[in-house]
Structure formats: C-alpha cells, structure tokens
Amino acid sequence: MGLSSILLLQAPPIPSLSSSTHFCCHSSSLPPPCAISKLQRRPQLFPSASPPSRGWNLSRKRCALAARAAAGGSAAEALRRILESPGIHQGPACFDALSGRLVERAGFPLCFMSGFSVSAARLGLPDVGLISYGEMADQGRQITQAVSIPIIGDGDNGYGNAMNVKRTVKGFIQAGFAGIIIEDQVSPKACGHTRGRKVVSREEAVMHIKAAIDARRESGSDIVIVARTDSRQAVSLEESLKRSRAFADAGADVLFIDALASREEMKAFCEISPLLPKMANMLEGGGKTPILNPVELEEIGFKIVSYPLSLIGVSIRAMEDALAAIKSGRVPPPGSLPSFDEIKDTLGFNDYYEEEKRYSISPSQPSYQRGTVYSPGMSSAYNTRLTTAERPEQSQRADDPSDPVVEVVTPYVYDNFNSGDRSRQSGMWSRSLRLKITGRNGLEKLDVRIPAGFLEGMAGVIPGLGGVNIMQMLEDASIEGGPESGKILLDFNDAMGDRIQVFVE
C-alpha cells in the first residue's frame, strides 16, 4: 500500500459529501464561504504522483482495512474524503484483482474498474454491451477484496430500466465498490468513443440517477454516484450540459460527460454546478477527448481523472511481444520480464509464508488414529501408546463403524532405522509389516503399514505383546527364506480381548 493510502486512513475527518447534501448551484445547503475557504486550504491528502511502494503486502492491506474499520469508515467514505480534498486525483483503470493490486502498490489513492477492459480480459470481446451485470459484479468483487483503496465501478447503463439500475447499484454495494458510474446510453451500450452512440431521453436518464440514489438509501450505504452522459456524441454539447445540470439537481455526487471533443468543451463542462466534482476520461491511444496532464486538468476544474486503457493496452502489447519471443525459440528479455522473486513479491508469497508461521504446530507427528499417539525421538523409532484407558470416550468412539481405517507410512522410521545396525537393512528388515488390531466386537481399531524395525519398540507399549520376542520371530522368518507377502507372523488375542495380527507386506 502506498503512502497516499496510509495518509487516507490517518487523515482527520472533514465535512463529507453526504448523500442528502449536494453542493450545487441549485442547492439550498451550500456551506458558508468561510467553510469553503477553509476546506480549500486543507493540505492535499494525495499527491498526484507517488513512488511505487515495493513493500506492499497482504498484512499491510489488512492493516489498512482494519484501520479504516476502526475509524468507522467505509470505502465510499474514503472516496468522499478524496473528492473533498484539494487537487486532482488520478485513477488508472484496472480489470482484475492483480491489476487492481498493482494500482494500489503504485501509490494511487483510488482506482476505476473499466468495463471496456473487463470485457476484453474476461470475455475476449469488445465493449459493445455483451458483458452482463453478474459478470461485472463478480469481477468487481474480486478486485475490491484484493485491495484497500476505493474502487469506482463501471455500472454501464444499469442493464435496463430504472428498476434494473436499482438492482445494479445494490449489487455493486454488496461487491464492495466505493462508487458506481451510471450512464444514459440505450441497450446495447458501447464504449462512448466508438461510433453509433444513442442515448435515452433526458427525463429517463434523470430517473435512472434518482433510482440509483434511492437504491443507495435503501441499502444504508454511502456509495458515490457518478452520473455520466454520452449525449455529447449522440446529440450535442448543449444537450450534454443540460443533462449534467439535471443530474446535479437529481442528487448525483460526481458529473461526467464522456467523449468531450476539445479543451473548450471541457471548460464549459466544468463551469456548470461548480461545487460538484467533475470526472475526466483520458482515453489513451486516440480517443475523442484531448489528452491533458493532471496540472492542466486541475486548472480547467476536474477533480478526478481516469485512464481506462493504459493497463489493458500495455498488457496486450507485452503478451504479444512475449509470445513472439517464445515462438522464435527465445524467452522474453529480462527488461520486460520480472524475476520469479519479483513476481512472488508482487503476489504476496513471502508475506503469506510469514503469516502462515503464526498457525504452525509442533514438528511432532500428529496422531492419525484415535487413541494412538506418535512422537519421534523416543528410545525406538517411535513410541506408540494406546490411551483408551485414559480417555474412555475415545475407546467408545473407536468401535464406531464410521471410524476410518488409517494407513500410516512414517518417514521418521526409515531415517532412524537406517541409522542403526547396517545388517538390518536387508532381508526381513527391509520389509514392511501390516499391524492389524480388531476389537472384541469385530470392528477394526487399527490397521497400519510400518517398517519391520518399528515393532521392536511396540512390544513394551501394546498390551498383549509383552514377553513376545518380536525381533527373534522376524529373524527366524528371515532364516526360513523370507515369507511371502500376506503371511501371518503373529495372530493372538491380548489381555483386553483384542485380536492382534502382524502380516508381511
């Protein structure tokens, strides 16, 4: 997480743009001039450019979320603080959890989820209305869970009428979005910089914004409503300005006209409802809107700016170059390919390993059979002790027909046994044995495969084996030429009435 995200969490609260108070020229809830002056003099919380934070990891993200929760904040409230702070704030557009994480790691205070890029990455299809509400909400949920900075989601046109808009807004709230963009295109909608754009009537577009605000209120949320119009290309600049004023009157939090064609049009847009934040869209690589730097955009009057194609665009080019290199018999050059350690650091492997240590258990071998305890480092390879007498409730459960028959192969035994007498590494001593204990009721209590040397330590701990020279019996079996698999070496009932059998594997 970058410095800007930390400052966001530590910044003292400032007057919020509540969903019921909208600072527009038509509102009667304007703050006094002194309040505006003080607000404008507050230090900027987020620099326009922050150096990448190489130490980003899962723990820092969780700490950021915990700090925000402790302060009673939400992603939407964090976004509102950004909108209320001086300066312009950049938000690259991500398309999945990894790209969202990289945006946060680079130090940006907010991020957009681009419908254009999600359609490309998730479906491999153009942004022409083919992707669905469910797919967008699911993709957004993956992104918001991977980061701690606020995410503004692309809600398209709400995927239908005003009732569909309400469902979309509620779904985006549940997915964890801090803001949602609702536009006025007809279905099927498409990228605003492509040809053939059509919009619904101004009255219907306003009702969609009102429906979005109602959905927010009904959900008890404070999600930021970004009202977008595509009427600049579909109708005219004048119509787009009228719609923006109407959206402000309806209660939108941020205004956005897509595909403005000149610097002059951008200035005209920022002059309406001057106290409402304006969003700019710098469509890289040849869109209809002039590409301006953040300083120029701030001078015009914009508050937030998105870069919708940078990440998906460079990803496409990088993958094409890598595939061309592989096809020619090479691998991508080091300059374009992070090291494996760098990739692991980006994904949080090292932090995962550190956190995993918090839940590690002792190195002793756990018990695999109810009532049986295995622990290395005893006088023999293992010290096995049946504890049913100490825990009678486990003795009862051992007779349950649902109890599993557990097969245990223990690596410690091989290591300890092989370090002993070298003469015992051949013949019978290299064989495995099967120890089977059957209760008086005919149900199996234990069924394990063990190295032959394991029995040397079992004679003193299993009732009924006391006084039986297991090792001599194995020596005799070896002298006899080595028994075939399945031969029974021992078969008797112990003092508790359990049947003990030892087979050669």
TrEMBL record:
Listed InterPro entries: ICL/PEPM, Pyrv/PenolPyrv_kinase-like_dom, Pyrv_kinase-like_dom_sf
GO molecular function: lyase activity
Gene3D superfamilies: Phosphoenolpyruvate-binding domains
Protein name: (wild Malaysian banana) hypothetical protein
Organism, as annotated: Musa acuminata subsp. malaccensis
